Amino acid sequence: MATDRVMVITGGSRGIGASTALLAAKAGYRVVVNYASNAQAAEDIVGQIEALGSKAIAVKGDVASEADIIALFEAADSFGQLSALINNAGVILHPMPVVDMTAERIEKSFRINVLGSYLCAREAIKRMARSRGGAGGAIINLTSAAAKLGSPKENVDYAGTKGAIDTFTVGLAKEVAMEGIRVCAVRPGIIDTEIHASGGQPDRLQRVVPTLTMQRAGTAEEVAKAIMWLASDDAAYSTGAILDVSGGRAILP
Ligand code: NAP
Does the record bear Cell membrane in its keywords (predicted)? Predict the structure, then answer.
């Protein structure tokens, strides 16, 4: 049980991040719950964790902002030794074909989903790397089945950000393996969270579920369990691994 170790979860206030925060608290981590704007949701999760007798703090910060990321990790420093980073914050923007996308829209997708994950990983490595006095740790990225499907006519920008996360996971895993840091990713399929409504498709689950292999969406907790396993010592020999939690969607034949 990891009773004195700190886990930073970007976007830990809702959806997959919130489920991960609760499981992490039960596993004994001190949890840093990052969020962008919905303070109430973040405080609710912190309250649930404290009710379990565990420790958590909510830290507002936009992962598209380098300054916010630096402040997030400084807040985590006051909480204890960083042991795990869950690069979970991510957005899907309103569906449209690439021909209609503005540069600002594409940049927004990449700043939040890609740049944010790179910079959070950089800050985590500074604290975890053995050559810098750290004790090692785990970085778990959230990719998507969209990286394989490409999401044509809807979210090719989003799919591209997740393709970048796949490659980032493999490259960074090799780069920091000898620093005692493992880097893995979870690749969800269609999961029942608010991200679809936020991305302008409130009816997405109803529309897509009949086409899914298991004829149902996944739950945030099903994804969170995979994240927690990859972050745990039980996955000590897994690095650069990308685990599909997609109910059979977009798996290779
Ligand atoms: P969600 O329910 O929409 O929750 C998003 C979380 O990220 C919230 O805590 C939100 O904070 C935070 N967030 C959003 N933008 C942020 C920013 N710029 N900086 C910091 N935090 C930010 O999302 P989810 O469905 O759980 O998705 C989590 C991850 O899984 C994402 O990377 C997503 O791409 C990936 N994923 C999801 C699915 C799916 O079907 N749900 C499938 C594949 C992959 P606020 O509450 O303050 O807005």
Answer: no
